[in-house]
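idk why but the lab printer keeps eating my pages so im just putting this in chat instead. protein + calcium ion:
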Amino acid sequence: MRRSTHRHPSTRRDLLPHDDRPVAHLREIPAFAGMTALICALATPAPAAKPLPPCPPRQAQLFIAPMGQPFRAAADAADPAGAWFAQADADRDGRITPAEFAADADRFFTTLDTDRDGELIPAEVSAYERNVAPEIRLYAPRAPGPLRAPTRKERKAAGEYGMPLGAGRWSFLNIPEPVAAADADFNRGVTRAEFAAAAADRFRQIDAAQAGGKRGTLDPATLPKTPAQAAVTACDPTRVAPPPKRPR
Ligand SMILES: [Ca+2]
Ligand SMILES: [Ca+2]
Ligand SMILES: [Ca+2]
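predcted complex ->
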């Protein structure tokens, strides 16, 4: 660690403007002037922030709802997260309550439980990954193509396992497979109760991640951004990045 070079010489501290001794007692007027200049310099606005990266090329949009339901939209259409919000906000009051969130999760569970036995068996979970949200496959690249694992360089840049994977790239939470992740007892089946418990936990996590902190309901203005949303908002729209290279 670099050793601090900050010094606190008593003679300088004695000369700070808030010193209440009479000015006539100041012993080193030039030093006082120097300190004033330093304070003025510190008050000068910081240099401009680091420039934003170029925006990614416009492409079809994807949002993966907290329990795994995908919402897709064309590049120029509205953010598909809005469609999920409208679906879950049953009373249309502009907020999603825990009960509305739970009901939306339960409805999605029913669509996945194709044999209606109250549990998502491995075949139903596989059907979700293969047919409902194929984009989420763990290391799938953004563009259609062969699966690949992140490179060593990519893992290092993202803090090894902190990078969003699978569904995490299009979700509020970094959960690569949001349906299988609800299997709390790891018996490879997801019961309706396990799905409901996961929903309650995810509601709490998203609520806590809202701008301004926990609110008790989800509000579209304060919801966290998915990595995909952040990539198109925290960028310089006057520059467009080249399309990503296809993995070999
Ligand atoms: Ca509501
Ligand atoms: Ca089933
Ligand atoms: Ca289970």
